[in-house]
Amino acid sequence: MPPKEQITSSMKSDVFGEISLKIEDLCVDFLLSGGDLRAVYHLDFELPAHKMTGLVGESGSGKTTLTSAILRSVSTPGEITQGKIFFENQDVLKLSDEKLRRFRWNEIAMVFQAAQNSLNPSMTIQEQFAETIMAHRKNISNKEMMEISRKLLKQVKLEPERILRSYPHELSGGMKQRVMIAFAQLLDPPVLLLDEPTTALDVITQDYIFTLIKQMHDQTHNTMLLSTHDIAIVARVCDYMAVMYGGRIVEMGDIFTMFESPLHPYTQMLIKAAPSLVGELKERVAIPGSAPDLMKHHEGCIFADRCPYCYDRCQSEEPKLKVVGEEHLAACHRADIGKEGR
Amino acid sequence: MEKTAPIVELSHVEVNFKKKAGLFKKADYVNALHDINLSIYPGEVVVLVGESGSGKTTMANVIAGIVQPTSGKVFFKGTQVPKMNQEQREEYRSRIQMVQQDSYASLNPMRRMIKTLGDPLVIKKYSDKKNVEEKVSHFLNTVELTPPENFLQKYPHQLSGGQRQRMLIARAISMNPELLLADEPVSMIDVSLRVSVLNLLAILNQRDNIAITYITHDLATARYVGQNGRIAVMYLGQIVETGNLQEVLSNPQHPYLRALLAAVPIPDPRVARQPRETNIKTMEEIEEGIPHGCRFHNRCPYCKEICKEKKPVMEKHGFSMAACHRIAELPPFSLYQASRKEDNHEG
Amino acid sequence: MNTIKSFFKTMYQNKQAFVGMIILIFFILTATVGTKVVPLDLGTDFENRYQMPSLSHPLGTDYVGNDLFQQIVHGTKSVLYIGLLASLFTVALGFFLGALAGFAGGVVDRIISLVAQILISVPIFPIQLIIAVVFPIKSTVMLAVVLAILSWAQLARNVRSTILSLKQREFVLVDRIMGMPQWYIIFKEILPNVTSYLASTFVLNTNAAIASSVALMMLGMAPYDVTHWSIILSNATAQAASGMNTAGIFNMLVPTLAFVLLQMSLIFFANGLDEALNPRLRSAASAKKNKRRISPNAA
């Protein structure tokens, strides 16, 4: 198979050049007894091809819902109520069941948190790999299957023989996470979604796993979307960063631009709130206020009541995600005026 | 400065846990702590750094008195723990409190917050039944869970992670402790919310003179609680480096601490993308069990013959006390090469 | 108390459980109020045998001409009485032994677990039968005891393992660090976590107890109560063999359906109980129930 960079995606964006995914006006709602919770609110998003994009947001921002929506696996009582998700010019939301089945894992795969029970505890790793490969590649021989499994495990620096024989509970958290990464690559998908891949792992193991992920990305040039609440990880490995708040993307751009000249006040505060080994202690400031209640409808900007720069237009008119610089989008009225808060 | 007596003192503490004996196997032991010497003084902050398997939680349990050392001595305010009378033992129980990592597991899912926080106050006679709501509200205010009325009737699953963590802190301080053991208190909360909880701990330390032992594997958070405190780095049950926190972090001596520092992600792309000194092996690539000689030798990039045979002792190096044979020959450590905005960056 | 209010609210939301609860209440009312209101006339009246349901005989008559409706109503009392009593003994015994094993540990635990293990592996009914033969059962209470004496094992085991795992939980550890007394840990922390299991097991056990009692009665091993549904059923079955008329079959159907209805209501109710008593499941339950669609243009 040719390296991914030669497989050009057929979709292009004015802002990011070649893109792998284009999401338009996506809404995901949770139907609860107290009302409806809109976890993803009229979201537009373009995922740059062959790059690593970090999707940053706190718990409740909707980022996990968004990544599940891409695979059409939002957990009940959530439902995708409108919008389009384009992959290779096809709307994923309109795929037939059979096409969807082939789409999942072949075109887009997800690396779940190791802490989650995504591995079947009653099957060995080898059996699980085999099941997945055979479900999609009916004519593959046993030998080929083992080769693929071994190669992928070696890629994540795991000893194939030992791992393939093991059951999930026999592996440590770090090893399970690496197995998940190998598992996601089984069918060589061009797009990989990673959902908080290093939560609950020690810092040295976390560092190791990201080194591996970066190495793999440098080799395969696939497209990655890394969803996390840890902005420091994104700084280390991602080329682009998108910030999510209240079910909306509030800012997105090239990684250096986002850290050097973030325009959205929430992005600025997120960066300031992350504990860091370097820099002045006093610079770290918590974000005042609390997360928005997504059961209610909000007039104007979703961030207005926590924003230090809020003015009357922010209360009444919702800002749209607009181009504010080269490879830089922001949804903020102040960005229109061209102010840069620092 | 006059020497005040430590609240807790651990002397040559050793903790071994029995592994379950099989039908044909003899019972085997796992060493969790080895030769621990540590004193915690009133009002001070000690940051205990270690990854999983380092023994840090066992250490916390020994300090709190729920695990007895296999050998060695534990002193509470000068009295050795096993030799305490009933009154001293009750005092010991009250003056040291713990806040754990998993706020969900640390709260009874079937009980409302007013019960979980209020009943202990009544039983220990810190409050009578009539004023218990008022007292609990006072502590909720202290941990910034305001207005308290909104939280009293809630069940744990109705609170956010950060709110639950604050509940744990409220419960701990309601016992009027002299020492608060915080075991990874922010690991399960979003990064953006950690600073405010850490600041809360720092305030409790500075304002109310509560000593804090902050246990973590994430050095980035260490500074927020332990600015003026001490640090002790643990590896496989031993303390490998200690000293004043700021000094030790700017001049780390032990290879393990250097590796830890290099692995901490930094929220700045220019700094974060510099190649760093993390060529140590992960825990899974080495054999199980405790190595001979220096316990870190099979992961250490600087390992030499002497490291495999002889156990290093704690000696003064730079600002720290550290246990390593090769410190003098290690290359200089630099966390980052470029951190100022004027410097060029790649890309 | 808000706990009671939210209990009923959750039961209402689980439609199945709510229906179960209503039917159960209906049966209880029948057994208590009904028996006082509805007369019981057991004189034989051969001319009126095997009548189909009519105004004077809402459920028809049986093979001796007695009104079935009256018998069913009065039978409810003994059916429920035995079932609930037996279940109560089972739960009490199982809980006590399970908790003892869990909290005391050591030798006590090992003995109790061993006995429980044996009881679980052995088929209970034959033993109940043997006991009934050796110690003839003369009263309903004794029947309940016999039923309970062998059924406590599974419950005890579950209670024990729940307690063992709870003892390790962090919130119990914190209690120890705070120096809370042992009774507080047992009664205030651990027990509330076991209650919902006990409640739903109690209800389900009633089912099992009724089934066993029916079997024992039909074999003649337990005290004979003419209005007990199983007696109605066994007599009707014996008679039905001789005649093939539809009323005879109806005679068998009525008590059978009464059993089915009662058992279903117990099962549905038990399902809802678990949700209603556990605060975490309460909120999850209310989240699942509402399936309204919202329009694409809603804000």
UniProtKB/TrEMBL annotation, chain A:
The protein's name in its UniProt record: Nickel import system ATP-binding protein NikD
User: Has UniProt tagged this entry with the keyword Nucleotide-binding?
Assistant: yes
Superkingdom, taxonomy of origin: Bacteria
Q: Which species is listed as the source?
A: Blautia liquoris
List the catalytic activities from the record. Answer: Ni(2+)(out) + ATP + H2O = Ni(2+)(in) + ADP + phosphate + H(+)
Q: Name one GO molecular function term.
A: ATP binding
| Known EC number | 7.2.2.11
- Tell me which Gene Ontology terms the entry assigns under biological process: peptide transport
Q: Which InterPro entries match?
A: AAA+_ATPase, ABC_Ni/Peptide_Import, ABC_transporter-like_ATP-bd, Oligopep_ABC_C, P-loop_NTPase
Intracellular or extracellular location(s)? Cell membrane
From TrEMBL, chain B:
**Keyword hit for Ribonucleoprotein:** no
Which ranges carry the ABC transporter domain?
Answer: 18-261
Query: Mind telling me what this protein is named?
Result: ABC transporter ATP-binding protein
GO BP field? peptide transport; transmembrane transport
Output the Pfam families linked to this UniProt entry. Answer: ABC_tran (PF00005), oligo_HPY (PF08352)
InterPro entries with a match to the protein in the record: AAA+_ATPase (IPR003593), ABC_transp_ATP-bind (IPR050319), ABC_transporter-like_ATP-bd (IPR003439), ABC_transporter-like_CS (IPR017871), Oligopep_ABC_C (IPR013563), P-loop_NTPase (IPR027417), Sigma_54_int_dom_ATP-bd_1 (IPR025662)
Task: List, alphabetically, the PANTHER family matched.
Answer: ABC TRANSPORTER, ATP-BINDING PROTEIN, TRANSPORT ATP-BINDING PROTEIN
Q: Which residues cross the membrane?
A: none
Q: What SMART domains does the entry give?
A: AAA (SM00382)
SUPFAM superfamilies documented for this protein: P-loop containing nucleoside triphosphate hydrolases (SSF52540)
Q: Name one GO molecular function term.
A: ATP binding
Keywords on this record? ATP-binding, Nucleotide-binding, Transport
Automatic annotation (TrEMBL), chain C:
Q: Which PROSITE patterns match?
A: ABC_TM1 (PS50928)
Is Cell membrane found in the keyword set? yes
Where does the record say this protein resides?
Cell membrane
Mind telling me which residue stretches traverse the membrane in this protein? 79-104, 111-135, 141-159, 197-219, 252-273
Annotated ABC transmembrane type-1 domain residues: 76-263
- Which keywords belong to this entry? Cell membrane, Membrane, Transmembrane, Transmembrane helix, Transport
Give the CC-aspect GO terms: plasma membrane
Q: Name one GO biological process term.
A: transmembrane transport
Extract the InterPro entries matched here. Answer: BP-dependent_transpt_permease, MetI-like, MetI-like_sf
- Principal localization reads membrane
Query: Pfam families attached here?
Result: BPD_transp_1 (PF00528)
Membrane topology note? Multi-pass membrane protein
> Where does the source fall among the domains of life?
Bacteria
Family to which the UniProt record says this protein belongs = Belongs to the binding-protein-dependent transport system permease family.
Name it.
ABC transporter permease
